[in-house]
Amino acid sequence: MSDFSAGDAGASLQPLDIAWAQFDRAADVIGLSDDMRAVLKKPKRTLAVSVPTRMDDGSITVFDGFRVQHNLARGPAKGGLRFHPGVTLNEVQALAFWMTWKCAVVNIPYGGGKGGVICNPKSMSQGELERMTRRFATELAPIIGPDKDIPAPDVYTNSQTMAWFMDTYSTLQGATTMGVVTGKPISAGGSLGRNEATARGCVFTIREAAKIKGIDLNTATVSIQGYGNAGSIAHTLIAEMGAKVVAVSDSRGGIYSPDGLHAEALQNFKRETGSVVGFPNTEAMGSADVLTVPCDILIPAALEKSIDERNAPNVQARIIAEAANGPTTPRADANFRERNIMVIPDILANAGGVTVSYFEWVQNLQSFYWDEDTVNQNLERIMTTSFNEVYETSQRYEIDMRTAAYVRAIERVVESTELRGMFP
Ligand code: GLU
Question: Which residues of 137-156 are buried (b: 16+ CB within 10 A; e: fewer)?
Fold first, then answer.
């Protein structure tokens, strides 16, 4: 187990340290052998590529990109592509690791993968982004494919990125290959409901958690850190259930209004101005301050490590639903266990995205498309069942929800690994 005696709030704590510490807690609960731990912790395959890209001014920038396939015991690798200046190989390996357990928690037939390019998409033109994405797809082509590894959107990538990616791969193959990525636009092989799926799945888990905690969503207050795809759509969906969103933030800052924030008006404001900051009749605060405002439910929907030992003791929510991957450090987790705050872990709370990615891939392979109700009903069934399985596991072993989610997931991956056996 990693040593956190020096504290976990600093920059030295790497995402993979957090991921492995979470895994080890669950491995201890089920008495997993050292051999199996070693097999399951290491990424199976890591590809590092250079992505030379012609910029609009005629110069060339060589970006660094990665794709990691963590575990393929239960099926092809699955997981998003992140374009962000803070991407590191360690981070991508942790994100791929989390995808393995996420897919196993909701019992969809994939292993875990993740990719990233170190870049700042906010300072790049559409043309630059397109050329970088197409070159990145070309560099990854040898290891991806509908039965090998299926990327999807993640932080600062979207359906347009996936359309370019699919088109590039199809061009290289000489055959339309819709199933190589998910999260595509509807008119380029996407699934209805995929864009909202991460948030919708997250809100289903909140609904189940609220029943257990005796919180009435009609009178509940919510704070959301991060206002991208997951955070902004979670705002709309949780407000539809009657809850009041009192604080939100994005990378530029936070806003607070005890009377509640109107989802559509705020989304229009962000579209026009580029940020939630400055939304009328709100109090301005720092991005991280929204984590500690008075509320019943907290949704971290930004990046890793936003909740650590420094701010965890000030969190006032009774339920934390991790729409982001890896937002809570192990010491923050320990604080929430002590205070009996229910953390719905990332590998469960945000699994709606990859679940509908699975539906998209199934539709692509069959060239037979579902209506949105079918997508949403199947998503609801999977999220509700998975939540309740994890909750029952947490009760049975008297462990927190994160450890219980890992226990469920590890049991499934171990079973596949043992049945397949080791080659040679
Ligand atoms: N990037 C998302 C995640 O972290 C979605 C992955 C996918 O759909 O493959 O779960």
Answer: bbbbeeebbbeebbbbbbbb
Q: Please compute, for residue 285, the number of CA atoms within 13 A of its CA located in the half-sphere on the CB side.
A: 19
CA distance 110 to 302: 25
Structural contact between residues 202 and 323, judged by C-beta atoms closer than 8 angstroms: yes
Say if residue 5's pLDDT is above 80. Answer: no
Tokens at 335, concatenated: 């604080």
Percent of the chain whose predicted confidence (pLDDT) is above 90 = 97
CATH topology (fold) of 43-178: Rossmann fold (3.40.50)
Fold: same for 43-178 and 197-349: yes
CA of 296 to the centre of ligand 1 (A): 27
Q: Report, as an integer, the average pLDDT of 26-51.
A: 98
pLDDT tens-digit map of 360-370: 999 999 999 99
Taking CA atoms only, the protein residue closest to ligand 1 atom 8 is 354
CA distance readout (Å), 380 to 84, 160, 287, 409:
31, 26, 31, 19
The count of other CB atoms within 10 Å of the CB of residue 364 is 24
Tell me the per-residue pLDDT of 85-131, one tens digit each, with 9 for 90 and over. Answer: 999 999 999 999 999 999 999 999 999 999 999 999 999 999 999 99
- Amino acid in the structure at residue 94: A
Ligand 1: atom nearest CA of 354 is 8
Catalytic annotation, pick one of 78, 102, 114, 270: 114
Tell me the whole-structure pTM to 2 decimals.
0.96
CA of 157 to the centre of ligand 1 (A): 11
- Alpha carbon distances (Å) from 27 to 52, 116, 159, 408, 411: 42, 28, 37, 11, 10
144 CA to centre of ligand 1 in angstroms: 15
| Residue position matching structure tokens 């590890």 | 410
Alpha-carbon distance 309 to 320, whole Å?
A: 15
Angle CA(152)–CA(156)–CA(160) in degrees, nearest 5? 60
Residue type, 262: H
Domain segments of the chain: what residues? Answer: 43-178, 197-349
Q: Which is it for strands 111-118 and 60-71: parallel, antiparallel or unpaired?
A: antiparallel
Cβ 284 vs Cβ 254: under 8 Å? yes
Topology of the domain covering 197-349 = Rossmann fold (3.40.50)
Q: What's the token pair of residue 256?
A: 């607070």
148 noted as active-site residue: no
